[in-house]
Amino acid sequence: MTSYDADLLVVGGGPGGLATALHARRRGLSVVVVEPRDGPVDKACGEGLMPGGLSELTALGVDPAGMPFRGIAYVSDRRRAQARFRNGPGRGVRRTTLHAALEARAKQQDTEWIRARVTAVEQDAGGVTAAGVRAKWLVAADGLHSTVRRAVGITARAGTPRRYGVRRHFRVPAWSEFVEVHWSRWGEAYVTPVEPDLVGVAILSRGRPDLAWFPELERRLAGADRGPARGCGPLRQVVSRRVAGRVLLVGDAAGYEDALTGEGISLAVKQAAAVIDAIAADAPASYEAAWHRVTRDYRWLTRALVLASAPPLTRRAVVPVSTLLPPAFRWGVNILGS
Ligand SMILES: Cc1cc2nc3c(=O)[nH]c(=O)nc-3n(C[C@H](O)[C@H](O)[C@H](O)COP(=O)(O)OP(=O)(O)OC[C@H]3O[C@@H](n4cnc5c(N)ncnc54)[C@H](O)[C@@H]3O)c2cc1C
């Protein structure tokens, strides 16, 4: 069969899928996006856009409202290590705000949308079909537990340690120009200002999260109106490969380490550029190496931090060591922010 409904079918209308759609439209490809949820879509997320990811988004014409943050601070027991980004601020942006901005831009760029959940994928040498659409290529950006990934036979397993994330919003005036990561024995609480009087708190841990693990933070948030909790996990997803014929994986669907370094959206947006380069060159296999290149620093730094902070003894040392070695802390923050 040689006729197509579109050049590219994007499964998943999150940041990875919509950035892919925008890159594809820039190359003149026709795009259909399949997303089951009505916008604006929310998700468990720390909501911090790193400077590198933010500049990729603005280059795509997406400039969502939010709160600038100057860097990252690690906090515990009245100790604080903080480092500024060298290349301008990041931005705390509510997921619903980000989704609305991405969706508006994608629609303005003539993408077609179908409201459906993909459950099966068929492909042959010339094309791929899902949700009743036949396209030359399919990019799956359907998240951590990707259905498309499974449907095309790409294996994935939850890695160790098994960690989960839960986020809530608290209506209090933002008190810091930094994303604060509060460390306790049992988990980390990641505080991102997203509006002048609203902060998001994402707790990452192996078990059921509890704000009482972070007494200083709990005091600050006492009495504040709080939004519903949203959770997801296990966070670490080890994915065997990212390309199966004409199907390519982007964002969390392509594999994920941990939310501790707050990079997932930026990485998804960078992978979107790489996947469209590979498709435009008719060289899908080249995407595997490009994915490894784009995600390398994040994977090794995040993995190293998660493993180093797993044993209680080294975990207690994370913040003190960060305060004692400002250049090393600044270096790590800027690698992840770039
Ligand atoms: C607690 C926590 C804190 C985090 N903090 C940050 C942070 O501060 N900064 C940061 O950059 N990243 C953070 N992340 C990571 C970030 O949320 C993800 O990396 C990012 O959302 C990945 O985008 P995506 O488009 O790949 O997937 P998603 O955002 O998950 O989007 C997937 C989309 O696919 C759709 N979908 C699912 N199944 C199907 C199907 N079968 N058919 C069609 N559509 C489907 C979903 O409805 C959804 O809209 C955090 C993650 C967690 C869990």
Automatic annotation (TrEMBL):
Gene3D superfamilies: FAD/NAD(P)-binding domain. This is NAD(P)/FAD-dependent oxidoreductase. One of its GO terms (molecular function) is FAD binding. It comes from Mycobacterium helveticum. Residues 96-163 form the FAD-binding domain. PANTHER family: GERANYLGERANYL DIPHOSPHATE REDUCTASE, POSSIBLE OXIDOREDUCTASE.
